[in-house]
Amino acid sequence: MSEVIRLLPDNIANQIAAGEVIQRPASVVKELIENAVDAGANNIELHIKDAGKTSIQIIDDGKGMSEMDAKMSFERHATSKITSAADLFTLTTKGFRGEALASIAAIAHVDMDTIELGAQLGTKIQIAGSKITSQEPSSRPKGTSISVKNLFFNVPARRNFLKSDNVETKHIIEEFNRIALTHPEIGFIFSHNGNVIHNLEGAGLRKRIVDLFGRNFNNKLVPIEEETDIVKVKGFIGKPEFSRKTRGEQYFFVNNRYFKDSYFNHAVVAGYDNLIPPKHHPSYFIYLEVPSQSLDVNVHPTKTEVKFEDGRSIYSIIRSAVKLALGKYNIAPILDFEH
Ligand code: ADP
Ligand code: MG
């Protein structure tokens, strides 16, 4: 008899986990911006080089980390965001798995520079292949900067699998848009190869949509609003005449989290009734709020799917809210411009 089972060393376990969480540069962007939001940042900068393949830098003015936490943050299952299983049902943060930084550090070169709010001195660390390679004090004034370079340097199959810069940039823009729409109150700067793509001041939702997608959106939006015990619905839907054959901007959020849901998409389209031609798609930016106990976000590490306790009721409420909004707009379209 011999024993052949053994525990994987951390760096291998992290690399395997990274395969789940970090599929492409856009996954890094998502995880790091979410961390900046969770850290209470008011302003977040995203700078990428070569579609994120060469480097991705996120700078925030959030609460930062102590030296201990900075080192700890790269351990697997290291999180400050939950302490018990019950917390999973009352999440107010985007992160909770404690996997992102450990995963990224397993497959890229990472520089972190951070200072805890109120501290005199910050910490700069470099990490590659899950190992800290250098550490020194830092004099940055506030918040955290994380640079991720040479993504997948030690996973050639993954690196070769990446698509063209154009395609990878589109994925990054999509992740950026989702977070910028979740948090219109946060200011964002986004640059690619030194060119500024977006410089967004913190604003209301309508302004954020217009800043992201263009001034013509100002005339396209109808406000939507509904409040029941099960769900609160807010946001904007596109006027029927702006529906298109290609899917445009279609965004659902619940409790400050972007999610995808073809069932609720169907509810929106049903709410338009016959106002849009067959096979046309409306734009929408719909924000739901539900009691956190009735929502399960713990479905998949990339977390764009969620589970609702009462999906069928929410379906009907969305459909009727869309109908109502369009009815109001048809009676008094001019009202729309006052929002
Ligand atoms: P999670 O977000 O699921 O907790 P991460 O691996 O993304 O896991 O981050 C680990 C921990 O590192 C976080 O729980 C948080 O305490 C800390 N952290 C990460 N990024 C930042 C940041 N930009 N500012 C402050 N703390 C951060
Ligand atoms: Mg995180």
From TrEMBL:
<comment type="function">
    <text>This protein is involved in the repair of mismatches in DNA. It is required for dam-dependent methyl-directed DNA mismatch repair. May act as a 'molecular matchmaker', a protein that promotes the formation of a stable complex between two or more DNA-binding proteins in an ATP-dependent manner without itself being part of a final effector complex.</text>
</comment>
<dbReference type="GO" id="GO:0030983">
    <property type="term" value="F:mismatched DNA binding"/>
</dbReference>
<keyword id="KW-0378">Hydrolase</keyword>
<dbReference type="GO" id="GO:0016887">
    <property type="term" value="F:ATP hydrolysis activity"/>
</dbReference>
<keyword id="KW-0234">DNA repair</keyword>
<keyword id="KW-0255">Endonuclease</keyword>
<dbReference type="GO" id="GO:0004519">
    <property type="term" value="F:endonuclease activity"/>
</dbReference>
<dbReference type="GO" id="GO:0006298">
    <property type="term" value="P:mismatch repair"/>
</dbReference>
<dbReference type="GO" id="GO:0005524">
    <property type="term" value="F:ATP binding"/>
</dbReference>
<keyword id="KW-0540">Nuclease</keyword>
<keyword id="KW-0227">DNA damage</keyword>
<comment type="similarity">
    <text>Belongs to the DNA mismatch repair MutL/HexB family.</text>
</comment>
<dbReference type="GO" id="GO:0140664">
    <property type="term" value="F:ATP-dependent DNA damage sensor activity"/>
</dbReference>
<protein>
    <recommendedName>
        <fullName>DNA mismatch repair protein MutL</fullName>
    </recommendedName>
</protein>
<dbReference type="GO" id="GO:0032300">
    <property type="term" value="C:mismatch repair complex"/>
</dbReference>
<feature type="domain" description="DNA mismatch repair protein S5">
    <location>
        <begin position="209"/>
        <end position="327"/>
    </location>
</feature>
